[in-house]
Amino acid sequence: MSGSLARESRRTPLTGSAFIRALAALDDLPAPAAPDDFAQRLARWFDWTHAFSLSAALSDASSRPDVPGLAGRGALAADERELARVRTALARTIAEAPDGGPPPRRLGRPLAGAAAPAETPVAFATYRQRYTQCQLAMETQVVPLRRRLRSSLADRSSSLAKLAELDIVMEQVVGAQERALLATAGARLEPLFDRLRAASPDAPSQPGPWLEEFRGEMRKLLLAELDLRLQPVEGLLEACRKSSSDRP
Question: Which of 11, 17, 16, 15 is closest to 29 using CA atoms?
Answer without folding.
Answer: 11
